[in-house]
Every structure is written in C-alpha cells, then in structure tokens.
C-alpha cells in the first residue's frame, strides 16, 4: 500500500491531482482507520493508464466515463472498446498533425541554416 505522497512522487504528479481524480470519480483509493488514502499496485497501474490518456488529450469527462463503465462490469466491454477505438483515431490524427508540423519545421530550420551559412561565407 502506498500513501498519496508516495504515489504522487512515484508518478511525478501532485497530491492535488490525485485528489482531483478521486473527486472526478476516476479513482477510488482505499482508506486506513484514520481516513488517509492508500493506493495499491492496481491503483498505480490504473493511474499510469489515466496519465497516458491525459497525455494524448483525452478529456477528463471521457476518462471518467471509461472508469465508470469499467466499474459497472464486463457487460460494458463493448462501450469501453468503442471509447478506446475513438480515442485511438484521435491519437492517429494527432500523430499526423505532428508529422506535418515536423516537416514544416524541418523546412523552416533548413532555410534558416542556409541563410546563416550564406551570411557566414559572404564577406
């Protein structure tokens, strides 16, 4: 079992973020006799997945919806699958945008390097 500060440090996020995820019903940590949050390895695995979803721009509302579907049980598997497939499409669109942007940047960087090289060579 891990405390909120241990999880925050391990995942490099703030305790505030963990409390926010709890408030949004994305995670439900255990509690000890003093009411302090305790996290298991399963919580850590889930939080790592949540963080990847966030990094790929999945809105909190969709993460919450996925979490709720999971808690409802196996009969929601097709809904969860659909949600993740839709997100994968979004990720592929992000990748395409990033590749096009990288190409544009490469072109711009090359032109600046050429310009600076010409200035350095010209007396």
From TrEMBL:
Domain HTH merR-type: from-to ranges: 1-69
CDD domains in UniProt: HTH_YyaN
PROSITE patterns xrefs: HTH_MERR_2
Keywords annotated in UniProt: DNA-binding
Keyword Magnesium: no
Family annotation (InterPro entries): DNA-bd_dom_put_sf, MerR-type_HTH_dom, MerR_fam
Protein name from the UniProt record: MerR family transcriptional regulator
Organism of derivation: Priestia koreensis
């Amino acid at each position: 079992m891990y405390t909120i500060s241990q999880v925050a440090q391990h995942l490099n996020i703030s305790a505030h973020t963990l409390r926010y995820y709890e408030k949004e019903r994305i995670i439900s940590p255990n509690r000890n006799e003093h009411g302090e949050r305790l996290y298991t390895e399963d919580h850590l695995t889930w939080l790592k997945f949540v963080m990847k979803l966030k990094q790929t721009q999945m809105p909190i509302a969709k993460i919450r919806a996925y979490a709720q579907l999971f808690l409802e049980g196996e009969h929601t598997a097709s809904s969860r699958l659909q949600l993740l497939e839709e997100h994968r499409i979004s990720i592929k669109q992000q990748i395409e945008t990033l590749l096009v942007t990288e190409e544009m940047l490469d072109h711009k960087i090359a032109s600046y390097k050429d310009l600076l090289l010409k200035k350095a060579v010209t007396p």
